[in-house]
């Protein structure tokens, strides 16, 4: 496990820190620390302009190979970039699903034509993507996907019928990668295909879901005979499950270190308020702050251990615990934030009654242990895949 960086790495850290200091100013100053989970509704157009600014300087798809327009940075340098970006208050990226998920998946599985068509828009920050996995009856268990796609050889298009839910930023996206069933009567993960579907068409209806925070980062997306070109299938028909699982592997990549730096920023804000309002004088609060800090250190070391795996194409079993760890830790951090705020945390002082940063943290973190794989499902995955325990008995529906 590598816990230190070389002299060259530290020079790179200085370079990116200086660039961010020089550029997160002027029209971009207001974007600092904005646009993260629970705050993704803020400044979407301004954040898109920021992403295009990043792209023009070559800081958007830093891990992509140079032949595809990226910087081809090492794992160490990517870790440093994400840490310094979060430390500087770099805003959440509207295009993070394309940059961190779809782009690497197309590099791995996409055809040359697909790479030429879709990667430049992600690289330049001009085309945005959302993820069409979860459905009302297929959340953590994607094998229950019911959305169907039928290839019509007359118009050479896939025709899609079904519904996706909890689709992050679908209202800001141009395209959606959709996991759909392409063989009539198939069940489980068999005969699923991975389709690239344009959202600006009559057969697509995007409906916002109002959350506990009062905002609508998530959406329902309905496909009513929506179409996409026959060539917009990644891999072959029936290979969707393999590709979908590989894509989720990218979700546990170097950006996790940036996520942890955002967590660190939140913890530092909690500590600052605890000192200023006297909550830090409570021994129980101090103990919880110390435990939160310890948990964050363990989380970082665990992430570095995962990233030190020499075979990056195959994650070690230890990687399976990461989602369970961070989501439980972050939910507890939300509770700590409210206890440090005290009665002030229950108040919104004046119109337009926007939540404070820590109020939003508390409310949004209630969902951490559900989205992206519920804790119950994550524990099953750890037991079955990492520990080799028998599969959970499944009862047949009447």
From TrEMBL:
Looking at the record, the residues that make up the Acyl-CoA oxidase/dehydrogenase middle domain are 130-225
According to its UniProt entry, this protein's organism is: Shewanella corallii
Q: Report the leader peptide range.
A: none
UniProt KW Transmembrane keyword: no
| Entry keyword annotation includes Transferase | no
A single Pfam family, by name? Acyl-CoA_dh_N
UniProt family annotation = Belongs to the acyl-CoA dehydrogenase family.
Identify the Gene3D superfamilies for this entry. Answer: Acyl-CoA dehydrogenase/oxidase, N-terminal domain, Butyryl-CoA Dehydrogenase, subunit A, domain 2, Butyryl-CoA Dehydrogenase, subunit A, domain 3
Which UniProt keywords are listed? FAD, Flavoprotein, Oxidoreductase
State the SUPFAM superfamilies in the record. Acyl-CoA dehydrogenase C-terminal domain-like (SSF47203), Acyl-CoA dehydrogenase NM domain-like (SSF56645)
Taxonomically, the superkingdom here is Bacteria
Which residues are in the Acyl-CoA dehydrogenase/oxidase N-terminal domain?
Answer: 7-125
- Domain (Acyl-CoA dehydrogenase/oxidase C-terminal) ranges: 238-386
Question: Which coenzyme or cofactor does it need?
Answer: FAD
The record's section on InterPro entries has: Acyl-CoA_Oxase/DH_mid-dom, Acyl-CoA_Oxase/DH_mid-dom_sf, AcylCo_DH-like_C, AcylCo_DH/oxidase_C, AcylCoA_DH/ox_N, AcylCoA_DH/ox_N_sf, AcylCoA_DH/oxidase_NM_dom_sf, Mycobact_Acyl-CoA_DH
What is the protein name stated in its UniProt record? Answer: Acyl-CoA dehydrogenase family protein
């Amino acid at each position: 496990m590598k816990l230190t960086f070389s002299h060259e790495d530290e020079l790179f850290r200085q370079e990116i820190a200086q660039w961010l200091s020089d550029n997160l100013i002027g029209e971009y100053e207001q974007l600092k620390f904005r646009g993260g989970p629970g705050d993704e509704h803020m400044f979407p157009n301004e954040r898109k302009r920021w992403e295009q600014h990043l792209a023009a300087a070559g800081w958007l798809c830093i891990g992509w190979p140079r032949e595809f327009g990226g910087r081809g940075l090492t794992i160490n340098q990517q870790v440093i970039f994400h840490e310094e970006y979060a430390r500087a208050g770099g805003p959440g990226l509207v295009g993070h699903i394309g940059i961190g998920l779809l782009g690497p998946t197309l590099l791995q599985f996409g055809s040359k034509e697909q790479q030429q068509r879709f990667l430049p828009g992600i690289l330049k920050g001009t085309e945005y993507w959302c993820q069409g996995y979860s459905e009302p009856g297929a959340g953590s268990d994607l094998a229950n996907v019911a959305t169907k796609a039928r290839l019509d050889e007359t118009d050479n298009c896939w025709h899609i019928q079904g519904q996706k839910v909890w689709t992050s930023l679908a209202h800001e996206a141009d395209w959606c990668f959709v996991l759909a069933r392409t063989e009539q009567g198939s069940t489980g993960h068999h005969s699923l295909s991975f389709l690239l579907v344009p959202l600006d068409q009559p057969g697509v209806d995007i409906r916002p879901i109002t959350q506990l925070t009062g905002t609508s980062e998530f959406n329902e997306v309905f496909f009513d005979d929506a179409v996409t070109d026959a060539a917009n299938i990644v891999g072959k028909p029936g290979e969707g499950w393999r590709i979908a699982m590989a894509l989720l592997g990218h979700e546990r990549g170097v950006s996790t270190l940036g996520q942890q730096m955002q967590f660190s920023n939140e913890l530092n804000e909690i500590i600052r308020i605890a000192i200023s309002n006297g909550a830090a004088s409570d021994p129980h609060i101090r103990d919880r702050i110390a435990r939160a800090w310890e948990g964050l250190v363990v989380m970082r070391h665990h992430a570095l251990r995962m990233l030190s795996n020499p075979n990056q194409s195959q994650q070690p079993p230890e990687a399976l615990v990461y989602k369970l760890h961070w989501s439980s830790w972050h939910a507890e951090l939300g509770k700590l934030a409210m206890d440090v705020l005290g009665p002030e945390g229950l108040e919104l002082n004046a119109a337009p009654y926007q939540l404070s940063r820590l109020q939003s943290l508390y409310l949004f973190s209630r969902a951490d242990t559900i989205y992206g794989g519920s804790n119950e499902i994550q524990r099953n995955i750890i037991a079955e895949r990492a520990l080799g325990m028998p599969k959970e008995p499944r009862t047949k529906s009447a």
